[in-house]
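Ticket #4471: structure export looks truncated?
Reporter: QA, pipeline team
Priority: medium

Steps to reproduce: submit the single chain below to the structure queue and open the exported record.
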Amino acid sequence: MLHIVKDAEPDSLRQDRKDGNSFNDRKCKKELNDALITNQGHLCVYCMKQIVLPNVRVEHYKPRKYKELVLVYDNLFLACEGNEGNGKSRHTCDVKKGESELQIDPLNPEHIKKMGYGTGGNIYSSDDQHDRDLNIILNLNEEELIRIRKSYYDIITDRIEQAKVEGEYSFEFLDKELQKYVKKRRGKYLPFCGVAVGYLKEEMETLRGQSY
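Actual output as written to the record:
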């Protein structure tokens, strides 16, 4: 998961909310999808797979039973198709979540800071409730996701080991690598960039501690 920072909501969504149309306006749907995918850097709000319009799901963070939040911008995100149709054990993200409620919030940077990634590709949180959200409600430790995250984890760790061998390893080197993953390129984040971001920040903290 990534920390999501939202721009101003589309005017058409504000008007749709005022009119009580609940996405019946085609212009509202388009502008909402465009805004959300821009905010998220073309990644699923939960698993960080790359997403492409129109093959997305509009995710209501607080489920639709909260009728007063159905058209609230901060309650809306874009999610991947979550392996829908491939068997319930493989369902992830919004497909797996359904009408369940999460405690971990992609708009809260403190929640994202509590997350980490293991050497085997698993995702976890130091907060027990958030860890349950990741594992049970969102199924983000589904087999394919673990495999993909491990491949990205191996890439960044190999890059760091190479830098150590070649004498390039330094705080400045780590920060330069970090910028590749925290900044959008042509409006897009690199898929699964949170894996590299988490690892690089840990390396930077370790190196900073050794400097004192």
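Status: closed, not a bug. The export was complete when the record was re-opened. Leaving a note from the reviewer for reference: The helical segments are 11-19, 26-39, 93-97, 109-113, 128-137, 143-165, 171-182, 193-210.
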